[in-house]
Amino acid sequence: MLKDLEVFVAVVEAGNFSTAARELDVAVSSVTRRIDGLEAELGRPLFRRGTRRLVLTDAGQHFLGTARNVLLELTEARDFLSSSDAEPRGVLTIAAPSAFGRRHIAPAVRSFLMKYPHMKVDLQLSDKVIDLSVERVDLAIRIGRLTDGDLVATRLAPLRRLVCAAPAYLEKAGRPGTLRELVDHECLTVSSKPTPPGWWTFPGLNRGAPLPVSGRLQCDDTETLLDAAVAGLGVVHLASWLVGDCLHEGRLVSLFSSDDGNAVKDAPAIYAVRLPGRSHVTRARLFLEHIRGHIGDPPYWDRPLPRCA
């Protein structure tokens, strides 16, 4: 099958069977048999024949991308195995959301560059979701649920949101005993409408809709909400990767001992994604191995909190 794919791509690039046969150093009849067999296996024609130059059918055009991706993946895998003892080098382009990238990807990049002195990294931090079919990015970090089935995704960590408040706030306002009591507290909320998926949402409460919490501060920047919570202005519902340090330092307190609302099927997570055929696979895999070791399992920001006396 792989040889058939090589012949198919060669014919497309050459424009006819005879030129492809010369480039492959085989007989024209061999090329014809390969294409005929491939079309028979797929159950549809890949070329419209009868013209001076072969023209791809719609099925052929669609199949061309898949064939090129498979061959590229195989070439990258062979290169990786043949050069596994060589010093990795080249440029790797990584895109990540701003806050997560600054806190967790940038430190991993620094240690990656120290480990591989001949590698270069172009780290792009932005909250804009990059279209990998347009932008030349080798690896992108996505947080949430994946919607693009064409991407190759590696799950790095679960996405857990925790209800937290500062000790100063709890001393003044009291600690809510149940999730339902959050509606009676000063809550720091995201300003975008509708409320993003997962925010202030807990299984078994409010029929799956966000709790109708409110407060004096709304903001579209999660780090600003975090700073306000640490200052004692109210309760937040933020990702554990964002609040982990504050919890361990005692600047925030997690209000509910269990991970209410996160242990659900198909829960959102943190992924590294790439587009087959558009990334430097060997370099991407090298960084994936490094970042997974850097984050750990469970991730370092979800390490157990010290027990309170």
UniProtKB/TrEMBL annotation:
Keyword Methyltransferase recorded: no
Superkingdom classification of source: Bacteria
Entry-linked PANTHER family: HTH-TYPE TRANSCRIPTIONAL ACTIVATOR TTDR-RELATED (PTHR30537:SF5), HTH-TYPE TRANSCRIPTIONAL REGULATOR (PTHR30537)
Protein name, entry field: HTH-type transcriptional regulator DmlR
Organism name: Paraburkholderia gardini
Family recorded in the similarity comment: Belongs to the LysR transcriptional regulatory family.
Occurrences of domain HTH lysR-type (ranges): 1-57
Keyword Transcription: yes
Keywords, alphabetical: DNA-binding, Transcription, Transcription regulation
